[in-house]
Amino acid sequence: MRTARAVVMAAAACVAIAGCGGGGGSNDNGVSFRALGVFQEVQEQVAPAADTLPTKDNHPGDTGREISLSGTNTIPNDVNGDGDFDGGFLGMENDLASQSINVQGVHVSIFIPGARLHNPVATDFVALSITLGPAVVAEGETASNLSFAQTLFVGPDIMAFWNQNQTLLPPTPFTMTVVMRLTGIDDAGDTFDSNEITYTVDVLP
Fold it and tell me: 23 by DSSP, 3-state: which?
């Protein structure tokens, strides 16, 4: 029979290695590797001034958008017609004290209630190449544990399929929900999956 001292020591050892097993199992609700949400840039009103990209101190939320199937090729898309994609910046944060995380990509699942397809109606993996520094940075170092990355989480192939097979979708207007989960690997080789974030797209007639 194990003594109380042995039990306490085993519990301490589990904490020391971030949850006995590391990786995604120790990252409940994004404790170690967090998806912060979807954000947008600050649009400049006078051309040709460049938009201000999301930063730690200024990152307005991108809570969703309205699209038409015939007029939208990707999500995010060019909402204001200035020639670049608007919004769709995924915020991510590494809360490991001493290890970096190499973000490999984002798993995407798309749900459309009422579709004549199994939900999720589409899944995808969008590759990313981002390194998040440790949460505790040594003096003189500048690596950031926070990043915002714009990515097409609903690609042109998916949008083209829906345009060509609209009978498989509910009549417009309808709502699709995009569920995303980031994945990354730390310096020790452990894999971490972030918490899930959701993004709402209203499809109009």
Answer: helix
Report which DSSP code applies to 19. Answer: S
Which residues make beta-bridge pairs with 142? none
Domain that holds residue 130: 4-203
Place of tokens 């201000």: 52
> How many domains would you assign to the chain?
1
Q: Is the separation of the CB atoms in 101 and 33 below 8 Å?
A: yes
Instruction: List C-alpha distances in Å: 160 to 74, 103, 118, 165.
Output: 9, 28, 18, 9
Q: What is the pLDDT of residues 37-60, one digit of tens each?
A: 999 998 765 555 577 888 888 899
Of 195, 177, 149, the residue nearest 38 (C-alpha): 149
Q: How far apart are CA 22 and CA 27, in angstroms?
A: 8
Look-up: residue for tokens 């170092």?
Answer: 141
The structure's pTM equals 0.82
Query: Is 80 exceeded by the pLDDT of residue 157?
Result: yes
What ranges in the chain are assigned the alpha helix state H? 4-16, 156-164
Backbone angles phi, psi at 9, to 5 degrees: -65, -40
Strand, helix or coil at 67?
strand
Q: CA of 162: how far to CAs of 70, 120, 157, 165, 169, in Å? A: 9, 14, 9, 5, 8
Q: Which two tokens stand for residue 51?
A: 């938009």
